[in-house]
Structures are given as structure tokens and as C-alpha cells.
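sanity check this:
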Amino acid sequence: MAFLNTSMIFTLFLTISLLHLISARKLTETDQQLKFQYHKGPLLTGKISINLMWYGKFKPSQRAILTDFITSLSSPKQTTTSQPSVATWWKSTEKYYHLTNNKKSVNLALSLGAQILDENYSLGKSLTTNQIIKLASKGQQQNAINVVLTASDVAVDGFCSSRCGTHGSSYGARVNGKQHKFAYIWVGNSETQCAGQCAWPFHQPIYGPQSSPLVAPNNDVGLDGMIINVASLLAGTVTNPFGNGYYQGPKEAPLEASSACTGVYAKGAYPGYAGDLLVDKTSGASYNANGVNGRKYLLPAIVDPKTSACSTLV
């Protein structure tokens, strides 16, 4: 199971700051611990539905921010957005598929699937990892990624203290005598619990170099922070769905396609500075990707598997 580890995030920030390293760090092949490798496992392929499980109370406007992001990942021609776009950002994951030498693998197509609302907190307001998996299992279990999104008043094991979200896989119910593994993601709304950890750079950081928070592109610190974490975990899910795909470091705490580039959002980034981002002239919001319906988003850098460098849109 992979996760966005907040203590690791800020430890990295401090370490890099002390060593005076530049932001878009090079992952050297001579350091086996940091070498980005393919571990010969399957990647997600084919038509994949992204099903959303909204746990707790979310406003319709908040749900729209995230559903527009999912739609933007592979926006059809009639909704082509301005560049740089979310679809262009996502296309960079194709490099991982090309390196597997499986020509069929590049045919990954993501689409927005079903949405399940659990506004009455059916499992309470304090959830374990097993309960997150139980919620995720309510979605389609074949050709799908089930994303559990918890509201700002829901506590989850490890949330804030060690992670902002996680992804993994679990076996679903038997169908015709067979059990299939399904991929899942969990991300929490950190606005009232730990925005300085899980919604940076839209909130003052708790640790590391201090800088003024940026204006969130959708004017919602919690949801814009969730977009960053969902994006990172989606990249990790498709390239390392079952723990034996692409990652660096130990299997128990892997750094994946995006989590290996923590804190890097644009060129010129360094600890405490997200990089030279685009700024909306009207709202003053910082962003690096355009989405459908005029949306703007801030998306994390993704490791280029050919160069082992963090690649950004801007």
C-alpha cells in the first residue's frame, strides 16, 4: 500500500534545504535506494472507470471541482482546454507504459464513473484503513479505480500524522467463482485538520521553510489540496497498482510517479517554493493546468522514467 507520507514530505524539505539542492532533483542511477525502477508487475490498462465515494458532507460545488478534474484527464475534442492542460499532464504517464514494451498497455482510457454519496456517516466519523477499503468495495470492482473522499470532519487512521491519502488494492467479492483485485484510493479533506501539511501551498506550512500561501485556483483550500493528492495518487495507482510496478526505494514505503517529486509544481521550485507558476490575472490564483468548464488546477510534477527527473507542465 502506498501513501502520501507527510512526515516524509517535510523531512525531505528540510534535508534538501540543508544540502542546498535544487528543486527538480535528479534521481541518480548510482544510488540504488533512489533508483526509479520497474518491478515487472502489471499496470492498469484498458477502459478504467473512476468511481467516487463521497463520505460525509460535501457541497455540490465541491464535488464539481473534483468531477471536472476527472473529466479533464482525458477530455474529448469538443471540450479541448487551453494549454497547459490536465490532459497533457496525464499524458506524461504514457511513458511508463512504453517502457514495458507492451504495445497494448498504452490504451489506458480513464473516465468518470459512478458517484456514491454517504452524507450520514454510515461508519461514523473516525475510520480505520479496513473501513476505507469497505467503503471502496461499494464501487465497481473490475476495470475501475474506486476513490474514497472523506469530509473535513472525518478522522482517518494516520491522516495528518503520517499521510494525506493512500492507494492500494484489495480482493472484491467472488463473481462466477473468481475473485478479482480492485484498485482504490483514499484522500481526506484537510482544510480543518492539517491544511499546512496536506493542502500546501494553499496554506502556511507547518514545518520547513515558511512562505505565504498561494491563492487556490478554485477558491477552496480543502478541495484544491485534495486535487493535488488525488492527482498524485492516480499517477501512482496506474503505474504501481499492485505494489510491483514502478517505484523507487523500499516496497513498504515506495516513492512513485508523483510522490517522488513532492513539493515540485513548476520550474524553479525549491523547498518552500512551489515554482514559477501561472497566475490568474483576475483572481490572483496560482495554477499550472487548465481543465474543462474553465477550471484551473495545480498538479504535482511527475517523474520522467527515462531521465529520472521531475517533469512539470510549466
User: Anything to note?
Assistant: Helices lie at 6-19, 60-72, 86-91, 94-98, 129-136, 195-198, 221-239. The CA atoms of residues 66 and 227 lie 7 Å apart. Residues 7-33 have pLDDT under 50 and may be disordered. The first strand starts at residue 2 and ends at 4.
